[in-house]
Amino acid sequence: MSAGAALGFIAALILLLLLAGAYLTWIERRVLAWWQDRYGPNRAGPFGVLQAIADVVKILLKEDWIPPLADKPVFVIAPAIVAVTMLLAFAVVPFAPGLAVAELNVGLLFFLAMTSLSVYSVAFAGWASNNNYSLLGSMRTAAQMISYEVFMGLSLVGVVILAGSFNLFEIVEAQRGLWYFVPQFVGLLVFFLASIAETHRLPFDLPEAEHELVAGYHTEYSSMKFGLFFLGEYLGILLAAAMTVTLFFGGWLGPAFLPPIVWFLLKMAVFVGLFLLLRAALPRPRYDQLMAYAWKFLLPLSLVNLLVTGAVVLLMEG
Amino acid sequence: MATTERNWLVDQWDVLWSQVRSMAEVFKHGFRRRETIQYPEEKPYLAPRYRGRIILSRDPDGEERCVACYLCAAACPVDCIALEKAEDEHGRWYPAWFRINFSRCIYCGYCEEACPTYAIQLTPDFEMSEYDRRNMVYEKEDLLISGTGKYPGYSFYRVAGISIRGKDKGEAEREAPPVDVRGLLP
Predict the structure, then answer these.
(1) Is A34 part of the contact surface with chain B (CB cutoff 8 Å)?
(2) In this predicted model, what pLDDT tens digit does every residue of B17-41 receive, in sequence order?
(3) What interhelical angle do A132-163 and A223-248 show, nearest 10?
(4) What is the interface size between A and B, counted as CB pairs within 8 Å?
(5) pTM of this prediction?
(6) What is the ipTM of this complex?
(7) A281 contacts in B (CB within 8 Å)?
(8) Contacts with A277 from chain B: Cβ below 8 Å
(9) Is the pLDDT of residue A68 over 80?
């Protein structure tokens, strides 16, 4: 791609992602309502499609309040971090052959690095707010995200072993024969659970557990700063869905009657739907249960998966 | 510790399976009928005995049923009913004015229960929102309807023993003429 085309692509991608993040709020509310025998927001425009725009306008016009005792620079920068890291992580997502902002040969590591960085946003937000609930929420988040990161990485090593590359394009190409959700089913399971915890979506939304912590780390946030946290969360959903599709469900691969990008987006939509279904269906576990599940079950499971995958690959080669 | 010996892995599988099952159950709800009533376009069902907007009814002859006895005002727990008695040339009582403040009314129906003449009645209508609180105060001309409400044939004076214009004592329904007590003397 020429420099101009690349810049245009980046601008279009950012615009589309921001729009998708905003629209996902409306889609989520409609879909949750659909599963709960309700209608959801259906008043603004046909089927309520203008609801997301109305929400954005509303949230921009709200009072932008910084608590007097807050650590101002950190308080302001925290919501930006989550949005920026999530947007940056999309740089390596392979939407179609040759269609990505950056074809890094360590794309997978870049993705893991960016999702890891987003923990700073939550930790800073909770610390800078100078609020007990915020601090409790951010401590929970930090512990949760660090715990689940460990085997989020480990669960993906199986994929890397099979594909022999960290490059996401090569990983997708390597799935031409068999999508990796079959040989790496355990890896998929662990990765999916870890990505829910990483985006702190329900049922693992303990960082913002309303019933215990008011709103967790973003208790003190208002206006578009609060909106940025939500944007980060919804971009996280999109990212987790995109990565699940890329790593386990063959990315853009699919029968030729649809273009590759459409296959990618369709598969992504299925996983976004699954994320929303999780929210609709499952209650939140206790914090100790969350941690016990991570360290006592998922971590050993991903290690076993890694060992078995490595052994099988070695045996087949030898 | 659990009292029954169970395989730990089996437990983990049960946990996972029950989550998947509840997700399936929730997904199936997408194909059920929606419970929401989209109100302004779609009206909710209101039972015939729904307690809504209060009206004053008339008897079958078209006369006001209210006899200004003040029982409704006395029964009202929030004191939202006010009226003043007046008397016509035949000695019949009626309210000179009758005022209900619907911004106070709690629609409990005690006024309807207290009314001896079925004059005051609650109706299945709740669509009486106003932008100005003062418009919630209904005067007698707003309350009085031309019909008989829930009791079509009922007229207080036709069954009451009181004498009124056009009906003397003993002429009410199911009422014997008054007995001359002195005529019973031996």
Answers:
(1) yes
(2) 888 899 898 888 888 888 888 888 8
(3) 20
(4) 34
(5) 0.79
(6) 0.73
(7) 19, 22-23, 25-27
(8) 23, 26-27
(9) yes
